[in-house]
Amino acid sequence: MVTLSKSRIEALSDGVVAIAITLLVLELKVPEVMSHHSDKEMLEALLELKGEFATYIVTFLIAGAFWYLHHLTFHFIKHVDGFLVWVNLIFLMFVSLLPFSSGLMSHLFIHPVSQFFYFGNMLAIALLLNVHWQYARRKHLIVDTEQSEADRLSFRVALTAAAFAASFITAIFFPTYSWAPLPAFLLVGWILEKTRR
Amino acid sequence: MVTLSKSRIEALSDGVVAIAITLLVLELKVPEVMSHHSDKEMLEALLELKGEFATYIVTFLIAGAFWYLHHLTFHFIKHVDGFLVWVNLIFLMFVSLLPFSSGLMSHLFIHPVSQFFYFGNMLAIALLLNVHWQYARRKHLIVDTEQSEADRLSFRVALTAAAFAASFITAIFFPTYSWAPLPAFLLVGWILEKTRR
Amino acid sequence: MVTLSKSRIEALSDGVVAIAITLLVLELKVPEVMSHHSDKEMLEALLELKGEFATYIVTFLIAGAFWYLHHLTFHFIKHVDGFLVWVNLIFLMFVSLLPFSSGLMSHLFIHPVSQFFYFGNMLAIALLLNVHWQYARRKHLIVDTEQSEADRLSFRVALTAAAFAASFITAIFFPTYSWAPLPAFLLVGWILEKTRR
Amino acid sequence: MVTLSKSRIEALSDGVVAIAITLLVLELKVPEVMSHHSDKEMLEALLELKGEFATYIVTFLIAGAFWYLHHLTFHFIKHVDGFLVWVNLIFLMFVSLLPFSSGLMSHLFIHPVSQFFYFGNMLAIALLLNVHWQYARRKHLIVDTEQSEADRLSFRVALTAAAFAASFITAIFFPTYSWAPLPAFLLVGWILEKTRR
Q1: CB atoms within 10 A of CB A151
Q2: Short-list B41, B83, D52, CA closest to A111
Q3: How close B43 gets to chain D, by Cα (Å)?
């Protein structure tokens, strides 16, 4: 079995994430207001984009969090094999889908179906990140030192999946509250990490 | 003759592949359904995109497979020369064309001409990958060790070209079955690799 | 606490900056002049884009300057921690917004609101660059040598924020002159650096 | 004076070139032919894009050649200074403009103004590459060995600028023949390199 260096899958991941998060901005269409309009009309045209802006910021931050977790896993991973490359490629396929999911969310903010799709996309990314990390640990592809740090990362990656699973399920039954689990899980994770030390 | 390091052609390749596979998502247009529509209408609007989704997933996975094979060849390549740089640039030119070929395929799924163009694009990429790898082997630009691994890669790269040649030819005579050779060749390759060990 | 290598946040930054500055060109729409039109009509169609061209060039150069300052800070930074990663991600979120701000500016060149938004975007980037650099210095994440060079960079980064703050405030009260502070601050910075040596 | 490592300006360049050449494909619009159309109508719709395809291929290859020359210069360059970073940023600004110039060319293939703009863009890139390389040589930022190889690169970079200057001037007086100088200069360069050895 060829053991591959991890640098190129990191480079491809950085490239795909960078493009996906930069394409998010294409959902923000410059309003077609004429220059003779008043400042008030112009501001109103920008304020009409507030749903798109909120989706842009939130999706960017979530994608940033996924990239950071991915970065942390590769901090421990020594080298990769064929299975891990494919898990990463499918992970990137769902990351690439973010501009679509984000567009769906920002155009149809209050619609259950778009929330279902959006959180489904996020959940798929989170689950693949768990498969990627657990596989690397089981197959001993990671460095031996820093066992407790690796455990802490396992906890974080699992908690992320749990948070998006909660949002995904909430989107089906109570669409109005589908965003609520995210800050709740973030708070729980933060408290647990503080008390653990 | 200057022998160039391989890192920048790898970086350019990772960049072009990352962008090409991320641009595939632009074919998925967010449906223009209003928020007052029912969940059922919304789901139907998304289901109408099923051709585009199938093309997105398949093209992403094929492009991922090409990137992986390209990665594997550079695992063995020590350094590059001018000819190899140009083969790689033309390889990337066809990779860049994927969002167009994919768009053609997803809009006109059942049309022979779009299948002909799509598989022609894939075949061109596969053939250039063979030229790239065989040239590197002949010119002794690769590391000496792991002869059997290099042979195995030659087999894989050749089989990929054969699979797309089969799809390309099938698209002319039996367009309905033009996708069939891909899983068939994948299965044959998998069995041959298993029995070889 | 895990100390992370800086290479991947550099790679993500290079990717996001490269994409954001390349997407600026999408604001330049090819004029729909027919081929049978005279050379004069064609030239006029291109000249009508002069606002878009000016915005393209200026935004590209400003983004280039931000990238260069970011590059210089990482020349001194040894490794990163979680807080620094998040400051960088939010920095990149505002860099990603540049094609939108630039599009707003080029379509509505003389409008106060678009200038307010454009310089607000630039100011946010400049302030985050200051937070990033000052945090790295305070937390001793940078190399020990070259103290005077690090001081000089602190001065440059602060001056950049001051310049955009001046443009931002000018845009509210005297929108016609909102660009004026930039060359003025550039000149002041250049003179101060010359006299310091 | 801080001497900077060359790796990040290489990374940004690879990113910008990768994106610019991949965005070229967006000029190729998928024809809006319905699936019930005949194969002949479909082929005709694709053939109508032949101008766009020719521009895509030629622009990709020219951009590839510029990237290759840029790569070769950095093969010799040890480290960079502030001036070199700015020359490279302006170089990248003109590379980013390629999708626009290419779009202008492909929509208005026979029009003198679009040829003038297209070759002007190419000439600007070629001249900046000369400034970049000559500055690096004069300031002794390059490795000492391989003097004859550095001379050969100076010749190549200068010849490229001469070729595009010839096309640019021809575009003004004899637009029909503006492409002719490129293969002519390529041939001359090839013969001169062969006879020199």
Answers
A1: 12
A2: B41
A3: 24
Q: Which chain D residues are within 8 Å of C146, Cβ to Cβ?
A: 2
Q: Is the dihedral of CA A120, A126, A128, A134 positive or negative?
A: negative
Q: Under an 8 A CB cutoff, do D8 and C43 touch?
A: no
Asked if the structure places residue C93 within a domain, the reply is yes
Residue A16 and residue B18: Cβ atoms within 8 Å? yes
Question: Is residue C5 less than 8 Å (CB to CB) from chain D?
Answer: no
Inside any domain, residue D63: yes
What are the structure tokens assigned to A166, written together?
């909660």
CA distance linking residue B32 with residue B44, whole number of Å = 12
pLDDT tens digits, one per residue of C69-95: 999 999 999 889 999 999 999 999 999
d(CA B92, CA B86): 10
Q: What is the ipTM, given to two decimal places?
A: 0.90
Q: Does the distance separating the beta carbons of A30 and C93 come in below 8 Å? A: no
* D residues 95-134 closer than 8 Å to B (CB): none
Contact A5 B75 (CB under 8 A): yes
Provide, as residue numbers in chain A, all residues whose Cβ is less than 8 Å from the Cβ of B71: 4, 8-9, 85
Do the chains contact at D108 and C43, CB–CB below 8 Å?
no
Q: What is the DSSP string of chain D?
A: -PPBPSHHHHHHHHHHHHHHHHHGGGGSPPP---TTS-HHHHHHHHHTTHHHHHHHHHHHHHHHHHHHHHHHHHHHB--B-HHHHHHHHHHHHHHHTHHHHHHHHHHSTT-HHHHHHHHHHHHHHHHHHHHHHHHHHHTT-B-SS-HHHHHHHHHHHHHHHHHHHHHHHHHHH-GGGTTTHHHHHHHHHHHHHHHH-
Residue carrying the six token digits 């010799």: D76
Q: How far is C100 from chain A (nearest CA, A)?
A: 7
Residue B87 lies in a domain: yes
How many B×D Cβ pairs under 8 Å? Answer: 87
User: pLDDT at position A107, please?
Assistant: 73
Neighboring chain A residues of C101 at a CB cutoff of 8 Å = none
**For chain A, how many structural domains are there in total?**
1
CB atoms within 10 A of CB D154: 15
Average pLDDT score over residue span B102-127: 87
The whole domain housing D177 covers 7-196
- Say whether A19 and C19 touch across the interface (CB within 8 A): yes
The whole-number average pLDDT for the span C13-38 is 83
- Residue C77 in any domain: the answer is yes
Q: Is A67 on the interface with C (CB under 8 A)?
A: yes
Q: How far is CA C24 from the centre of its chain?
A: 13
Q: What is the per-residue pLDDT for A144?
A: 76
Per-residue pLDDT of chain A (197 residues), as tens digits, is 566 788 889 999 999 999 999 999 888 888 776 556 677 887 888 888 888 899 999 999 999 999 999 999 999 999 899 999 999 999 999 999 999 999 888 876 667 888 889 999 999 999 999 999 999 999 888 887 778 888 999 999 999 999 999 999 998 888 888 889 999 999 998 998 888 76
Residue D89 in contact with partner chain C when CB distance is under 8 A: yes
Q: Are residues B103 and B27 in contact, defined by beta-carbon separation less than 8 angstroms?
A: yes
D71 vs B171: CA distance, rounded Å: 40
Residue C181: predicted pLDDT: 92
Q: What is the pTM of this model?
A: 0.92
Q: How far apart are the first and last CA of chain B?
A: 40
